[in-house]
Design goal:
The protein is an alpha+beta fold. It has one domain (2-74). The chain has helices at residues 2-10, 32-42; strands spanning 49-55, 61-67. A two-stranded antiparallel ribbon has the order 1-2. The longest helix has 11 residues, at 32-42.
Length: 85
């Protein structure tokens, strides 16, 4: 599973980002949706992982995959984006 995560991360480029996220110097910033969907359709869908989304007060969203029976602390984050809530 971690091999797939690294493979996805290695292929995240600015071309996959919405224009407002391009050129930001934070690694993986803005890629969480694309990375989450990629992992979900390759592996997670058949392994019990489900996509989740959070929107903060600024309207920014963050996507990740989580097993339905696990607590939030055990979720897998493909992107390392963090923002204020």
């Amino acid at each position: 599973m971690m091999y797939l995560v690294k493979l996805i991360q290695q292929n995240l480029t600015d071309g996959l980002l919405k224009p407002k996220y391009r050129g930001i110097k934070r690694k993986y910033f803005g890629h969480c949706y694309v990375a989450t969907e990629c992992f979900y359709y390759i592996y997670g869908r058949w392994s019990g992982w489900f996509p989740y989304c959070h929107r903060n007060r600024k309207g920014e969203t963050h996507w990740w995959l989580q097993k339905a029976d696990e607590v939030l602390a055990e979720r897998v984050k493909l992107c390392l984006m963090k923002f204020e809530t």
